[in-house]
Write a structure and sequence with these properties.
By secondary structure, this protein is α+β, with helices and mostly antiparallel strands. It contains 8 helices and 13 strands. The two termini are about 40 Å apart.
């Protein structure tokens, strides 16, 4: 039985970096059950999910994040929504998407929602970018943090390295390690961890502590969709401005499926008119 997926955070105080390790085997397993894509489309879905999950680290309590990619070449729509609690849902359309694109061109919308406030939304243009480039573009241009994500090719895991601001700007020297230099220096060690693919909390912490990293904590990340019949009914009523007869079009009921989790709901006319 797979352990729940978790996002782990570590600190390299000496060099001034945070290292975040996402162990995503359970999440990807659940994703396969929810979205059984065919061909090589799923590996792209997997890479984007693993690459974006470490962003949860930047979310504060009661904050949630949506990443929406509209790719025109090749054509697909990718949606990933998550929150500070680690509850995550995602989908890739069309459902028969079977292409693993080496690069994509389109747009991405990043929307951060803070309870009780207007959402903050940024738009980025994507021009012939690889999966890795898309993820790091979101980090650097939308979140504006010096960070890079590495997605494992051999395990359902990823690592995000973030450079911390200098403690005293007057003491900055030329011998500081850059973000790229740090990642290059740690690359073989990170690869060894990916190759072993640990999913036990104690073992993961031990592996990173061997790299002189201090363990800061972790949080569970799981596939969770808040859809319900009540929400479906309310959304339909809003979309059709309560014109229920037009919506039903003479049918005895509506069969509605949630694109995120594939849950199916039967909606009756009496549900929409509040007669139940």
């Amino acid at each position: 039985m797979l352990a729940n997926s978790r996002l782990y955070s570590f600190l390299d105080h000496k060099n001034g970096f945070n290292v975040h390790f996402f162990e995503g085997q359970k999440l990807i397993h659940d994703l396969i059950l929810k979205h059984p894509l065919q061909g090589s489309g799923f590996p792209y879905f997997r890479d984007m999910v693993l690459g974006l999950m470490p962003i949860i680290h930047f979310l504060k309590p009661l904050e949630s994040l949506g990443v929406y990619i509209d790719s025109e070449d090749p054509y697909f729509r990718l949606k990933i929504e998550t929150n500070n609690a680690g509850h995550t849902r995602m989908l890739l359309l069309p459902e028969d998407f079977s292409q693993f694109p080496h690069s994509l061109t389109g747009k991405v919308r990043v929307s951060k929602i803070v309870q009780g406030k207007n959402p903050y939304t940024s738009f980025l243009d994507l021009e012939d970018l690889t999966t890795k480039d898309v993820i790091n573009k979101i980090l650097n241009e939308s979140y504006q943090v010096p960070a890079k994500v590495t997605v494992s090719e051999i395990s359902d895991q990823s690592i995000m390295v973030t450079k911390l601001p200098a403690l005293n700007v007057n003491k900055i020297t030329d011998d500081q390690v850059s973000l790229n230099e740090y990642i290059t220096k740690k690359a073989l060690k990170f690869h060894d961890i990916f190759e072993e693919a640990p999913n036990d909390i104690e073992k993961i912490v031990q592996q990173f502590e061997k790299l002189d990293l201090a363990y800061l904590g972790s949080k569970q990340v799981d596939f969770f969709c808040p859809c319900s019949k009540e929400r479906i009914v309310e959304n339909l009523k809003n979309m059709y401005n309560n014109n229920i007869d037009e919506l039903m079009a003479g049918e005895p009921h509506l069969d509605v499926k949630c694109d995120y989790c594939n849950a199916k709901y039967v909606v009756l006319e009496s549900d929409l008119k509040g007669l139940n």
